[in-house]
Amino acid sequence: xxxxxxYSIDGKEIETLQVDEARFGTTVNAPLLKQAxxxxxxxxxxxxxATKGRSQVxxxxxxxxxxxxxxxxRRGNIRTNLLRGGGVAFAKxxxxxxxxxxxxxxxxxxxxxxxxxxxxxxxxxxxxxxxxEPKTKFMAGVLAKLKINRSCLxxxxEPDETLYxxxxxxxxxxxxTAAELNAFDVATRQKMLVTREAMEALGSRPA
Length: 207
Fold this sequence. Notes:
By secondary structure, the chain is α/β, with parallel strands linked by helices. The protein has two domains: 2-42 and 101-204, Ribosomal protein L4/L1 (Ribosomal Protein L4, Chain: A, 3-Layer(aba) Sandwich), CATH 3.40.1370.10; 48-94, no CATH class. The chain is 31% helix and 15% strand. Strand 4, helix 4 and strand 5 form a beta-alpha-beta unit. The protein starts with a strand and ends with a helix.
């Protein structure tokens, strides 16, 4: 069993949670985690660059002049890439760069990312994080008391507009719900701050 510290909004450790590492795959699957991150990066690329080849530009397919008897080099039609206005040699074509991962692989990659955060003592659970109205200063104070001064992933159990507005203007803070988590977000943030309710949701979600 792994121990995860639980903090109050004052930055004081109030208890520890027992987490079964078997729930998150027992060991960190680094190759699968890398594969998920590469797939995420690939899906963000647009890959819309495209140029016209000789079959796509306008122009007649008739030979410009006869093959022999002119004393000049042989010449094809006006679409050739050797002439101004012709097509591009080895033209670029738009393609779909996405790398698809099965759902079970995505879930296992997320489990490995969360387990890596727990083993590295970079996952913290916070209790009582609620606000009546958006206050960025309050959220900044909570992070300061927890000594989080690096990139952080704040994980909530359910969408909370008040907490989202309180954290969105802080640098390097990303807000996600437990259902929205993916391996890329977890792995690329140095700290992970999870509400108690979100931690329970992560532990009870289907494997």
